């Protein structure tokens, strides 16, 4: 007897106050609706997001549910989805890990199907986290990972006992997101999207970043800066944007705008207006590439970003360098565009593979 069709999906989502994670969630929703025909979609959050984000989710036809309210959704008509971001990490609290294991336990009782799609895997140092993540991921099939570094780490974590497949970040899945970024507008601002997070060993020399931004503005002849806080939580990107803005103002007369919004549409508007993008955030780099904008990476020694920059022929600016203008000139001249466009096409095909793999798994 064949298994009845799935009626709903429950997505165990990342932080929706981060516009990159919000974009990945919408990409995941697009794939579920377009490829699997699932329209009843719930999004689990342990802490409900800001009211602006909640309204946006309602507009997208999504129901946000608190973590303690999902037990009733975990039955044989539900597809439980985990992924769409850098989800495997040491920073996860013991309480959240226990809650995840309880969610999986109830999903077994309810005979849910489970899939982990396009996940990113950070280095794990804690024995507790290694054991907990190994147990959690082993409950999912298929497991697809978004980059080669994550594939290596996942295989080591799971000791090759569970099959993992290399695909690509969900941001590369052809969707309305791509069309939104390709709207032609005037190139009138330099976007800087910084991340300074000591928990992940990512630090910025803001004087050096300001120097990079000044060189980029000079070569573009654009003296309007838009500093975008991708993660709008108070302890995250907003503070570094404010500090960077102060340094830029001291360099001369220029217009500086700080954007900290949970509105994905509002954020994408700024990317459409960009003359160039300077960032050490993965999805800021991806937004720029999808919109065919020049993009440069601030080298913060993050291996996830470094691997992506190499894959897509995006130049890195060293924070200790005395001269960056030749590197910037090459990017503005489109020297690396042929290789980048080829890589983008391949990434688009691999992103589709996330859902092909899911469809194949659901047939068994």
Brief summary:
By secondary structure, the protein is an alpha/beta fold.
Write the layout of secondary structure elements.
Blueprint: E1 8-12, H1 19-36, E2 40-45, H2 51-59, E3 63-66, E4 78-83, H3 94-109, E5 113-119, H4 127-137, E6 143-145, H5 148-158, E7 164-166, H6 176-181, E8 189-193, H7 206-220, E9 224-228, H8 237-251, E10 255-259, H9 264-272, E11 274-279, H10 282-290, E12 295-299, H11 303-311, E13 316-318, H12 325-332, H13 337-362
Parallel strand pairs: 1-2, 1-4, 2-3, 4-5, 5-6, 6-7, 8-9, 8-11, 9-10, 11-12, 12-13
What are the defining features of this structure?
364 residues; alpha/beta; 7-stranded parallel sheet; 6-stranded parallel sheet; 13 helices; 13 strands
Question: Order of helices and strands, N to C?
Answer: EHEHEEHEHEHEHEHEHEHEHEHEHH
Helicity level, as a percent range?
40-55%
Poorly predicted ranges (pLDDT <50, ≥5 residues)? Answer: none
Strands ordered across the widest β-sheet: 3-2-1-4-5-6-7
Mean pLDDT: 91
Strand count = 13
Distance between the termini: 12 Å
Strand content: 15-25%
| Computed structural class | alpha/beta
Shape verdict: globular
Radius of gyration: 21 Å
Largest sheet geometry: 7 strands, parallel
Helix segment count?
13
């Amino acid at each position: 007897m064949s298994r009845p069709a799935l009626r709903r999906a429950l997505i165990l989502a990342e932080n929706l106050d981060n516009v990159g994670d919000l974009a990945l969630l919408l990409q995941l929703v697009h794939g579920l609706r377009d490829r699997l025909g699932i329209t009843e979609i719930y999004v689990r959050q342990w802490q409900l997001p800001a009211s602006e984000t909640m309204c946006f989710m309602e507009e997208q036809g999504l129901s946000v549910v608190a973590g303690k309210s999902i037990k009733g959704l975990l039955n044989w008509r539900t597809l439980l989805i985990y992924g769409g971001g850098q989800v495997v990490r040491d920073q996860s609290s013991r309480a959240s890990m226990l809650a995840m294991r309880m969610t999986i336990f109830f999903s077994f009782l309810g005979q849910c199907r489970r899939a982990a799609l396009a996940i990113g895997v950070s280095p794990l140092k804690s024995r507790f986290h290694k054991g907990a993540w190994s147990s959690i991921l082993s409950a999912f099939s298929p497991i697809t990972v978004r980059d080669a570094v994550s594939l290596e780490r996942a295989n080591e974590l799971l000791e090759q006992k569970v099959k993992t497949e290399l695909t690509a970040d969900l941001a590369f899945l052809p969707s309305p997101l791509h069309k939104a970024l390709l709207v032609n507008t005037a190139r009138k601002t330099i976007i800087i999207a910084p991340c300074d997070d000591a928990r992940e060993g990512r630090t910025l020399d803001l004087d050096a970043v300001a120097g990079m931004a000044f060189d980029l503005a000079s070569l573009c002849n654009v003296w309007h800066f838009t500093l975008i806080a991708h993660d709008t939580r108070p302890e995250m990107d907003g503070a570094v944007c404010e500090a960077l803005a102060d340094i830029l103002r001291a360099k001369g007369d220029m217009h500086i705008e700080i954007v900290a919004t949970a509105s994905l549409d509002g954020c994408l508007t700024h990317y459409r207006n960009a003359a160039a993008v300077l960032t050490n955030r993965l999805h800021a780099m991806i937004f720029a590439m999808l919109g065919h904008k020049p993009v440069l990476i601030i080298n913060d020694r993050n291996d996830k970003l470094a691997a992506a920059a190499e894959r897509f022929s995006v130049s890195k600016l060293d924070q200790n360098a005395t001269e960056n203008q030749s590197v910037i000139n090459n990017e503005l001249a489109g020297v690396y565009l042929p290789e980048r466009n080829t890589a983008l096409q391949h990434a688009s095909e691999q992103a589709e593979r996330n859902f092909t793999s899911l469809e194949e798994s659901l047939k068994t």
